[in-house]
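Z., the sequence and structure:
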Amino acid sequence: MRYDVAVIGAGPAGLAAAATAVEAGCTVALLDSAPRLGGQFWRHSAGDPVTGTAGQRAWGTFSRLQAGLAGSTVDYRPDAPVWLVEPVAGGFVLYTARATVAAERVVLATGAFDRTLPFPGWDLPGVVTPGAAQALLKGSGVPVGGRVVVAGAGPFLLPVATALVTAGVRLVGVYEAGDPRRYARALGTLVGAAAKLPEAAGYAAVLARHRVPYRTRHAVVAAHGAAAVSSVDVVRLERDGTAVPDSARRRRCDALAIGYGFTPQLEIPLALGCETRLDVDGSLVLAVDSAGRTSVPGVYAAGEVTGVGGAPLALVEGRLVGAVVALAAGRPGVLGEVA
């Protein structure tokens, strides 16, 4: 069978694109490397599909998308990581470990992964990314350790820390290398993030209730241990990011979750020859036009692969790309509704 569109990735962007395209009458294959729908944002265990730290409103959106796809003709294939997309006459062939899929168009919704920086001891067992700690907890109900340090930079540290402490983990501290208070000086940024403030306040309340130290302008600079991590060194940072002299403090732990934001997953689009650009944070992201079209005809993209902007933006981009793909396939029924 040859599909009108194959969507790679079943997170917010991929789910929205697949749901919109199939609603318009397209034949759709949805391929994902994970065993369940949702991506990293809506990752969940097999028996717990409607809870998490993302907020009940967001999980309601996931439940609606999940129910809509279950009653549709979308060919959903879990545990099917795509390792190659090959252009052929009239479309593309997508190769997975189990089968190949032919489609006239491809939507890339491969998302992003944690950005890591090397430091002494970063390869010790027990040193993981925040995304890995969250995936283990949300996907399998297993905490990464019993005494954990969360460190790095970015708002993602808060939901990860909150999930861990709620699961009964002894959280040694949350060490944020940046200074979130600087956002208050940028009125436009603060107004744009206003909807997230109650969520952030909720995370802060949980950490305060469990008496978890939250330190800004602090960074983990080394991990120590023999067979596994047993302690980390934390330093205070100057405003320019350099370490304050003689500020290092050692903290005992059996796991460290550390990451500095996200970087898009670009292996497939780079192999296809899609053009890229530098985003505002210096990350390499996929270049798309206002309709989600890449530089390669027939290849579209939505979500974090085009720049990390969060789940609400990914949902909008996914719906838009799904409608544009439907229009290209001669099924424009939902385009006006999305617009």
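Confidence is low (pLDDT under 50) at residues 49-56. The radius of gyration is 21 Å.

Let me know what you think.
H.
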